[in-house]
Every structure is written in structure tokens, then in C-alpha cells.
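Lecture notes, unit on protein representations.

Consider one protein chain, 410 amino acids long.
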Amino acid sequence: MKRRDFLNSMALGASMVVPVGRGAWAATSANPTKQKLVVIMLRGAVDGLNVVAPVGDENYLRLRPTIGLSAPGLDGGALDLDGYFGLHPTLAMLQPLWQQKKLAFVHASGSPDSTRSHFDAQDYMESATPGRKNTPDGWMNRLVATLPGASTPSRALSIGPVMPRILSGPAAAVNLPNGAAATRANILDRPAIGAAFDQLYAGHERFGRAYKDGKDAHKEVMDASMAGEMNMADGGAPLPNGFPDDAARLATLMRNNSKLQLAFVALGGWDTHANQGAGRGQLANRLAPLGQGLAVLAQRLGPMFEDTTVIVMSEFGRTARENGNGGTDHGHGNVMWVMGGAVAGGKVYGDWQGVADSALNEGRDLPVTTDFRSVLAQVAERHLRLSDRQLAQIFPAMPQRSAGFQIITG
């Protein structure tokens, strides 16, 4: 099967965690890590209908009389995107990226599995095998193992309290805690202790390689950080308040360590069952630092942003109707965000069917008309230059349906 045919057939704290294996690499490019990918997971199910709101649909405010965004130009109103959709007003710092056509959205996207369980839905999105609970690894770990070029321990990085499901597997990856403490020296940086551990693991048949990879990765990250200074539903994920600082730190690491190619960050606080608010309130307070962090990331990456794709996704969306507590409950379809130099931005993609009662899934939420894997696979193929065989390894058992749009220009 040709690569294009494959894509068209798809639808819908200290600091280091020592890796448990190594990827297999085949050098096919003089600069195999030039194209970067950053994935942001919003744990808890962000309300996509208030992130990119269909303010041009008369049914929108009927379903959301107190939490719906006002029309553009009104107090607390949405920011006009295309005359029909409006962006949440706290995301104004991202408007320049939209206008530069480096930011796009895919609405009514998500997992084809119907679960409304946070745990299961996050697992399916991180394994990229919806409905299958026994997948042993995450799709980003499989991606690490298929990328061309020489193996380095710090090629894939996660920022968060623990190594996430999406990067779990045999390929090497690094996990950093959130905040400035992530790049501080740990106990192994003390010469005497480090030497003792080196001697302990030097000849160990099972753990020696993993220990060396973990120590090498730690050194690479520490070197990059020092160079920069001198020049529940949440699954343990922190609130986005500290994301601008983490985004700035991530950009510094990526600029100073050319071997770092993939990054993952999880942010919590999106399970807004009550007091969600509209242009202001709980959701707005979460979106503001998220938008600020994304803008910081794009700015701090500098020219490297042109070779970077950033994806923001969440396990599922929320109900179209507000509930009696001024919030929204677990839904189905949501909106994915895609930004970067290779993005055909300035457009809301997807098979959008509106929010009339007859268009809603089970009469309550958006249907999933674009499988989230079709967006991920398009980024992997057109931005990271992977073959059809490699795509099949990363996204097994894909449905035979077309996504119907091209969001990556590479």
C-alpha cells in the first residue's frame, strides 16, 4: 500500500527515570532530529465547545444559556476565527499564530471508542488503540523506535510527575518533574556517589545498559539547562498554572540539545462539572496559562518553531448542554489543536455537523467524525517523514475511512 493511500484510508525529582530499553535506529538523514513534535495532553476532558465555540450556530446559546460564549465584539465574547467559530477570549495570545496560518483546529475529533471513563479514554488515546486495554506500549514510544537516526537517551522527553503511558515501552525516554527543580543536580551528580553507582552497574548484564542510558540522558538535559542559564481525572497531572515556565524551560532544552526531538506534557484541571463559567471563570482560569505557555513555547523556540509541530488533545469532550450546576458532563467529540511551521493553519478542520439536537451523539454531545489517530498519523507521515510501514507499526488496526483534509503542508 502506498503511503498516501494508507493515510487516505484512515478516519476518524530528582529528575531522571532510567529507561528500560533501547530503540532500533536506521540513519536515513543527515539531520534526522530536525523535525520536532510536542504533544500536550489535557487530562480531565477539556470543553472543546467553549475553546472553539460555534457562536454562529443559533443552537449554541440555547444549549448553553449561562456558560456559552457571547458573540465576538461583546463583553467576554469569543474571538472571531472564521465568521462561525470563535476562540475563547483568554486565548487571545494565540491569535497571531492563527493569523499567520500556523495554528489550526480539528473539531468533532476524538476516539471512536464510546467510553466516558477518564482512565480508559486516556489509556486509549495514549496507546492509540481504542477499545484495546492490553496494548503494552504508548504510541510515542513506538514512534521513538521507528524514527531514523542514531539512538540517544534524551531523544524523547516527558515533563510531569511520572513517566506517562504514551512514552512507556522498550524505547529509551526521559522524564523530568515539573518546575525549576527538574534541571537541578541530583545525588548521582556527586562525584563519589556517581562513581560508586558506575562501578555497581558497569558490568551488570541486565541493568548496565539502562543505567548508562539514564545517566547519559540526565547529563544531556543538565548540560542543555545550564547552557540556557548561562546564555485524578488529572492522572496526577498538575494544573496549567506553571505551564508557561515549563514551556520556556522545554524550549531552552530543545534549542540547546539538538538530539531532543519528541516532548510530552500533561496538564490537569479540565473536569468542569460545576461552575465552569463562560468568558470568565474556572475554565478561563485554566485556558489562560495554557495559551500563554503555548505562545511562550512558539516564541522561545525561535526559528526552530518552523520545524516543530505542537498537538494539544484531550481524552474526550463534554456535553453540549450545560448541566444544573453551571458545568458540563462527560461527552464524546472534542477539538484538537495543531500549531507549527508545517501546519496549514487559519482554519477549523473536520466534518462539522452543528449542534442541533438531531446532530448530537446520543442527543447529548458532539459525535466523533475525525479519528484522532488520523491527525497524528498525518503529522507522523508529512512532518516526521515516516513510511507507510512505519505508520502501520505506530498506529495498528486503523479503520478504513478517510479523514478528508490535509492539515500538514510538508
